[in-house]
């Protein structure tokens, strides 16, 4: 690349920077730092110039360290010979890459590499000098004309320096010099070497990745094999609800635990109408979506979105189809190995179905199919139960073709809830059209909890004084006391209103248990055993709930499962606590609309609108008080289908209401905003307050609870408990798993934790958040090996609603392509504001971010965190990028306001439908934590009670009926969804990739908006 009329040149010599002014460059033929085809996309990052050496000037790179972010696999012109730009002097690449990545070397271990300079001309050329132009870290590379001695050599004659001078290279001859590096710290080491040949300057870059024993222990022994993006589908054995004419299916009998129970309200099959299925498969947008959401088409609109989601799940399950596989006996069941099961989403879970056909049978439908179900999932093996015939006839070595189906129970409950919602008052669904504005008369409150502030007290008074109408909303960021407020309101009603009956729902078992814990532990009110029920799904493990709370649960000791009490017993409870989806069991048992005087939906921003409708549509009557609590600018619903998400399924009922003018005006009769934060240190709170909460948050944390003096000196600046540690690692993948990990960052995380523990910090006070499931596994493994302390490591989703004294964030990604499209895909998980918001608001006393500053600075929110630390002298680590012009304008393409498009495991699937390049930036699949058999904690599709008696064989097609009336979009009535979609670990579904999804449906501008 030629540079002329350069008026100011900044360069880094060995002893520091210099500035030349008034120089002009025009007579140098070649600079090999960038090939011709690369110049346009790098011109903003690199400023280069070269002049005749008689002028004693140097070529210039404005930030040689930026080379550390090069996409090694596709930008070879940075470090290799390019005949088109260099001509006949051939200089080899120092430290050639291995499989597209820098060579690894142990910290404090010397590594050296020969560099050859070959003269292919017929004339002698003068090599005026070879010099190290710049190194990062400084002075970490050296040059020598001698081969460096071995580590145990006593040779004293070896000499190395930063430059070599004046040699003549004869025609056809080759000169070998040696480039050495002895890294003193972990991470990427880079150097630029200048070769001044005659009147030309040629440049070469060298890269070394230094690792320590921790990072080396995490080295993968399984090379990455990129999964095929669009796996060809095997012939379909059976279509649930489809045309299966002539196919004989032998189904397994129901487990004993699902028998002997008859619900009052049956759950219809809700088979997907063929015309709607055909439209979606052909990428034709159904009319209900083109019209946008309105009161008139509310039912049809959301039913269509649920269909899109269900069809996406159907397609994703086809990834598990296999032919000619063997089943082996295991106890009373059959076991099947499913390669890659732990790495994909949606995963197979307990209650899903399997169709099996002996591989020897032909396809003329003369032989039956066996339809069984999954009893247990262990790593990459599933335990199966079929009809007794198959178990009896099966012999070891028999081979089968198999097809999996997800359990439709969850979807059927969503369809049912939306149908029921069609009969709700318009004021509830679209309150802006409410004919009457309510005015609540409040009475002075005597708090049960002495810790209520002004806003909390007012909201409790409003809830107690409220009589039906649109939902009352309590919203605010983490740590502002939303759960405290809900608990106070529930206890006030229980204590002072004898005729109240209260339903409390949460999106996960953990969240529901948290509410139970608060209610039971409040000293101001004694809850009688017969007044409170904690309703659990049958599939929930007994070990998953605290023994002290079993007294509030309905548990069948004989069948060893949780159960739903009978109607006669349910009506006696004053307070019932459940997940959103388990609430449908109450309707199935016969509880009527209006049975509950108050319905509280906690973490309402995390549930899709159809999920929120499960408790509301079944039990709301005109005088019922609905209370929604949550934070609509943190994580929301977990959606698999990109199209359904874009049309509005990814937006919660609470968020939709908060965006309406009716609630935006802040009318205290309908909404309270909590702004007093009791969790975070002021400096931890200041950035999210500025970015997401209009700078309204007030830090109320007591100064003497901020952090112990024993580890206060850990901070670069004692009064500023936010630290950024810059590490230039390398992101890697292994095996068939497209989830990323970064061993260098994992090592840094472990070292930080070891330092904190030595200072007296307890392991359970530390949490580690990272976007990719593989990084979760690597960090967990390293902690188990080197620390042994019980420290929670998880994704952002697994930390929502939780907090720790100290939070450490590992951002993982450390390589980026230098064009804007690929920056978007690489940064996808990072550039989701909601995940960023959740991640940085989990810490009470100390927040530590670990990552590559040259990568994260491309996103505006992470860039602000980086410079928030740097400007307060709280940055450690590798050199910083320039402060200006770092941020990539990701615009609407990243859907920054959408909480599931770009996933923190996350693992990976940025869900961008990106088809370019081998690396498929951001692509990932999650896997469950190693050794965790509590499948409900990370499954998004575990059914409530296996479908109970309301139809074992949930996915078996019945009449093509939507409720009792086949008319599309008509308003019929409901019953119960899988416990749960995103219930305990919504990150799992968020990580689903769009394999085979194709181009998205067109989205009208008004879709999903009121």
CATH homologous superfamily (4th level) name of one domain: P-loop containing nucleotide triphosphate hydrolases
Radius of gyration: 32 Å
**Overall strand count:** 38
Structural class of the helix and strand makeup? alpha/beta
**What is the CATH level 1 assignment of one domain?**
Alpha Beta
Largest sheet: 8 strands, mixed
- Oligomeric state, counting identical vs distinct chains: single chain
Global shape: globular
Query: pLDDT below 50 for ≥5 consecutive residues: which ranges?
Result: 1-68, 256-260, 818-826, 889-1010
Using the 3D structure, state the CATH architecture of one domain: 3-Layer(aba) Sandwich
Strand percent estimate: 15-25%
Number of helices: 27
Helix content: 10-25%
Q: Cα distance, first to last residue?
A: 54 Å
Q: What is the element layout, followed by pairings?
A:
Layout: E1 8-13, E2 16-21, H1 39-42, H2 83-86, E3 89-91, E4 103-106, E5 111-119, E6 125-136, E7 141-144, E8 163-169, E9 174-181, E10 187-197, E11 200-211, H3 213-217, E12 249-251, H4 274-281, H5 287-290, H6 298-317, E13 322-326, E14 328-330, E15 333-337, E16 353-358, E17 369-378, E18 381-385, H7 388-393, E19 399-405, H8 409-421, H9 426-429, H10 454-465, E20 472-475, H11 482-496, E21 502-506, H12 509-521, E22 532-534, E23 555-556, E24 561-562, H13 567-570, E25 575-579, H14 583-589, E26 598-601, H15 609-619, E27 625-630, H16 642-649, H17 653-658, H18 661-664, E28 671-673, E29 676-677, H19 682-692, E30 698-699, E31 722-726, E32 732-734, E33 737-741, H20 743-758, E34 766-769, H21 773-786, E35 792-794, H22 796-799, E36 804-810, H23 820-826, H24 833-840, E37 843-851, H25 853-856, H26 860-870, E38 875-877, H27 987-990
Parallel strand pairs: 4-11, 12-17, 20-27, 20-28, 21-25, 21-26, 22-25, 26-27, 29-30, 31-37, 31-38, 34-35, 34-36, 36-37
Antiparallel strand pairs: 1-2, 3-5, 5-9, 6-8, 6-10, 7-9, 10-11, 13-19, 14-15, 15-18, 16-17, 16-19, 17-18, 23-24, 32-33
